[in-house]
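re: ur question from the group chat, yeah i did fold both. here u go
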Amino acid sequence: MITLKRYQYLGWILVLSIIFFSGCGGKSPRAKFYTLSAISSSEPVDLVGNISEGIAVGIGPVKLPRHIDRPQIVTRSGPHRLVVDEFNRWAGSLNQDILQVLTENLSILLASDRVAAYPWEKFFDPQYRVFLEINQFEGVRGDYVVLKMTWTITGKESNQTLFTQKTEIKETMSGSDIDTLVETKSMILAKLSRKIAEQIIILHKDGK
C-alpha cells in the first residue's frame, strides 16, 4: 500500500523533474556576429596630391597573434587577463576582415582602383607591397582599444624594403558595448590606413 508520504515524495520528484528538463530545453543566448568597416568613400581625401595615375598596391599578408586569431571577439579585463566572448563573434576571419578594410581604405585614400588584398591574382603586379605584423589589437570594454604592430613597405620585390615602422594607436571607447568596441577598432584601422597611404605617396614622389 502506498502511503501519503509516498505520494508526496513522488510528487516532489515529478515537480523537480519538470523543472530540470524545462531548464535543459530552454533556449541558450544566440551569438551576435560583427564585421569591421571601411571609411566612407564620401570622406574628403587630401592625400593624393599631384599623383594622377592609380598606384598599384598589394596589402598583406597580415600576421595576427594566436590569442585574437579566432572566431570569438577577445577583450581584456586586466593587464594579464583576456575575455573570450562566445556570444559575440566575427562574421568571418578576423585576418581577412582586417585585410579587406585596409584594402578598401587605401583604395579610397590613394584614389586608386589598383589596390588588392593578399593573395592577389597572378596578373596583378603591385608597385608597393605592405606587410603587417600585429602584436596586439584588443581593448578593455568601456575604456580603450589599442593596436600595436609593425608594418613594412617593399618594392615590387618583397626583399626590397623601402620603409618599416612600429606603430601604436590607442583610442578611447565612447561606450562599453561590443558595437562600440568594433566601431573603435574600425577607427583605428582608418588611422593606420592614413599613415600607410601618406608613406606610399612620399615613396612614390621620391621615385622609390
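okk and heres the other one u asked abt
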Amino acid sequence: MIKGCKICGIKDSDTLNFIINHPYPPKFIGFICNYPKSSRYVELNSLKKLLNVKKNKSEFVAVLVKPNDEILEEIKNLPFDYYQLYDCTPHTIKNIKQKYQKKIITALTIKDESDVIRYKSFVDVTDIYLFDSKGYEKSHSFDHNLIKNIKLDKELMLAGNIKFDDNLKNYKKNANYLDLSGGLETSGLKDTSKIDIFLNNLNELKNET
C-alpha cells in the first residue's frame, strides 16, 4: 500500500517552498549532498541557506553516496531526519546511524535478482529500503517485477524512472513510498506543474485505499 512519496533532488528555494506548502506535501524531500556528478547536487553553503525553512509536514533526507567523515561532520547539524545511503556496507551504516542518530534509508541499486537479495545484509541497520536503478544521477529504470515477491519487515521505497503522470495504481503492490526526481522535471529543472499533478494524483490514490 502506498503511504506517500519522496521528491528528490531539490536545489532551489522556490521549488522547496512550493512543495512544503502544497495541500498534499510529500512525506520526504531529498537533497543531494555529496555527489557533484548530479545536476541536482547542492553545495554546502547553498544547502545551509536552502534548508533554513519550516519543514511543515515533510521530513528532510540527506542523499549521500559513500559519504566520508568530512561531509558527515559538515551536515550533522542540518535539519535532516534521514540519511539515504548509497554504496555503504552494513557496518558503515551502523556506525553512521549510531554516531549521528539519524534514521536510515538504505539505497540498493538494482539490475538483476542478485542485487535484490542484498537487502538481507542490511536488515539490522535500515529503517526504509529504497530499491533504485543503477542510474544514480540519471533517470534509469529497472524491472520492478524483481521485487514483487520479497517479504520485508521494513517499509519499501521505490525509484527508477517513475513519471509524474504514471498510473500510480501499478505501484500499489510493490511499494509503501514512491521516489521521484527526473520524472518531475522539464529540461532538467523541477517543474512545479508536474509536481502538482503528481501530488494530487497520489492523494487521490491514497484516498481510494
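fwiw on the second one: Helices lie at 13-20, 44-50, 69-75, 90-100, 113-116, 192-208. Residues 4-208 form a domain with the TIM Barrel fold (CATH 3.20.20.70). idk if thats what u expected
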